[in-house]
Write a structure and sequence with these properties.
By secondary structure, this protein is an alpha+beta fold. Helix content is about 35%, strand content about 25%. It has a four-stranded mixed beta sheet, with helices on both faces. Strand 4, helix 3 and strand 5 form a beta-alpha-beta unit. The N and C termini lie far apart (about 45 Å). About 10% of the residues have low confidence.
């Protein structure tokens, strides 16, 4: 683990968790089995940190979690009716003060069922909570995009998380990758919705 990531890890306080909450919502319901399959393929199988836990043995490092169980990290909840944006915001707010379990990999994903993004539309939302020690906000945005498809194909965004990033290296490479990837997504979205 880089010294920068170790710093984020040790900065956790009960009133100021170093957890980045990311939310996506969809205009159609998602199946929990499909979400788990995508997470396995695009996170667990690609990024070792998602199946590793932080261990301090003469310095912080990521160690593969021997008893890793995807079901402990990917769960679902049902919003009560009407499942509108206010209810979604209330649910997300209720999660923000919950610390991540330090005995497991430092992330969770919650599939939120019963969300209605517009009147008469039943969809889903996905809340991903990741400790800042896993990656910075821009890299985690790329990870979020990597879970999505455009025109039925993976976006190809977020293909790697740096092993030992430097702040300047992260800023330069990530800004370039993110701008390029975001432009590709915007272009593809415009083609599919326009």
């Amino acid at each position: 683990m880089s010294s920068q990531d170790a710093l984020w890890l040790t900065m956790d306080r009960p009133n100021n968790l170093m957890v980045i909450d990311s939310l996506m919502w969809f205009e159609s319901p998602l199946a929990l089995s499909d979400v788990r399959s995508v997470v396995q393929e695009r996170l667990i199988d690609r990024f070792a940190v998602y199946s590793s836990r932080a261990v301090d043995d003469s310095g912080w490092r990521w160690v593969p979690h021997d008893d890793f169980d995807l079901d402990q990290h990917v769960t679902d909840v049902q919003l009560p009716s009407p499942g509108d944006m206010t209810m979604l915001q209330d649910f997300v707010s209720s999660q923000r003060s919950l610390p991540l379990d330090r005995d497991r990999p430092l992330w969770t994903l919650t599939l939120i069922q019963g969300f209605s993004p517009a009147p008469g539309v039943l969809g889903s939302a996905v809340l991903i909570r990741s400790h800042h020690s896993i990656a910075d906000g821009i890299r985690l945005t790329q990870v979020m995009f990597s879970l999505c498809d455009v025109d039925g194909h993976p976006t190809g965004v977020g293909t790697s998380l740096p092993a030992k990033p430097s702040p300047l290296g992260i800023a330069a490479s990530t800004a370039s990758e993110f701008a390029s990837s975001a432009a590709d997504i915007v272009t593809a979205t415009a083609r599919t919705t326009g």
